[in-house]
Every structure is written in structure tokens, then in C-alpha cells.
Here is the input.
Amino acid sequence: MIRTEDLTKQYGKLFAIKNLKLDLVSGDLFGFIGPNGAGKTTTMKILATLLQPSWGEAYVCDMSIYTKATEIRRVIGYMPDFFGVYDDMKVIEYLEFFAAAYRIRGDKRRKVCEEMLELVDLGYKRDAMATSLSRGMTQRLGLARVLLHDPQVLLLDEPASGLDPRARIEMRELLKRLGGRGKTIMVSSHILPELADVCNKVGIIERGELLVNADVGEVMRRVRDHLVINIEIIGDQNEAAKLLEQHDVVSSIEIKNEIIRVALVKGKNVEDYCELPTILIQNGFKIRSFKEDEINLETAFMTLTKGATA
Here is the structure.
């Protein structure tokens, strides 16, 4: 549904994006991650046919951005990070205005607008003035707008930006529902844990270059150099640490905030460390907790990037 080949946008000596290669299929929910200025918005604007690349190619639904821009706009829904609403329009009027622009006519127009309001949980605000909505409600209204013509591809630039925790949770659940409908969704966000929860693929971009483009699980495996086990016990922690460090699966041990952190030798997994709790129990220690260090998308992001921008 989305494919790019050596996609590049250059301003003088500055590369906003450089030789970008993406390949997303129907049903993919792709999290586009990167520091501010990394090239996320530039990429989305090019895919939305709002910006011409310096060179390279991009296809949306097998249509080239160079020769089929009008056709591409009919099958995508692009939501920028910030957008305005009209002062003198009610919520339902705002959607009907854009539905008319999409050439949705007659009774179907009102029906589609009502359905989209229910989808984004704004049905109870249908007669409210668009300017009276909170930031979170405005974001949902914007999402309803880009869904009016039932696009096959959604390009959502920071849809959770500025939202409170409840609004972010609601936006996350909405993205899950849309993904369940088989749409291809590219979403950029700085709310990294929530992207990991909804996306099946992620791309990490820095200084215009794509560092990672893989399934979420693959990204986690790439970052995890070795397993770290956090153990909380009742008893002498130093004595327990000395006992554990004798095991051949243990690489190093440190005690931090009353937690024994056991780093395993690279390549070791669950089957290799399952004897550690037994060793502690047989030597009279009581275990309060025993769990692996969590590797999340934030950890991956910080590990794979340097904080540089284009």
C-alpha cells in the first residue's frame, strides 16, 4: 500500500530525508518514530502529495506520487499535527462541509457524518460549536474528517500530541479499531509505549535516515544485548549475590535499590536461568519477586538514536 525507493528531500546541503525505503502492506499499523526534525512530517507530506521530493520514488496503493497525485488524494486520509476548525460551524456542519468536498451527496452525506462521529465517540457533541471542543476532542474530530471518504491509507502526524492521558488512551483504542478494519496506517508519535501497544511495525528515523524498519518484536530483539533478571529477596543480599555469581550463566551482578540485578551471559535465555530461583531457595532465601528487565520501545529508541536532527 505504501512503498518508497530512495526517497530524498534536500534543501541546499541539508537532507530532510535521505534514501528512504519503506514497504507497508494492507493492514499494517506502522509507528514512525524519531526526534523532532528527523524527517517524519516531510515523509508524510510527500506521501500525501503535498510536497515534491528531490529525487526517489513513492507509491501509494501502487500509484506514483508524480503521475497520480489526484488519484492518491482520493484514497488517503492525511491528518497533520495541528489543524484549524471553522469558528462558525457546529461539529456536524464541519464534517458535512468536508463530506461535500469529497463529493458525498444527499442522504448518504448525513449518514456518513453521523457514523464517523459515533466511531470517534463524538456523537454527543454533534451540535456543539467546533471551536468549543477540547484538544483531545478536536483531534478526534480531525480523525473523523479524514475517515469520511473511507480511505485505504491513513497518514496521521502526531495524533496524540498534546492530549491528556485519558484522551491518549481513547486515541490508542481508536487506532486499534481502525487497524482491525484492514486499513494501512502510518502514525508518528512521541508517546512510544503506546505505539508499541498498537503497531505491528515501527520505523526509527534520525537525521533523515531510516535506522530501523522492522516488526516490533524484531526491534526489541535487536536492542536486547543480554537478559537482566531483577530479584528481590528476604535475607542478606550480598550473600545471595555471591551465591548466584558462581553460576556459569551469570555475567555480572549489582545490587541497586534493594534489588539484585543479574546480567546473564550473552545468548542465554529463560531455560538457562531457571535454576537461579532453586539455588536461592535451597540456601534458605525467600523470593519476593523474580522477573526479567523489560525492554520497551522507549529503550529501543534511546539505544538506537543519538538525539541528532537533520
DSSP finds twelve helices and 14 strands in the chain. The domain at 226-294 is CATH 3.30.70.100 (Alpha-Beta Plaits). The chain has a mean pLDDT of 86. The chain has two domains: 2-222, 226-294.
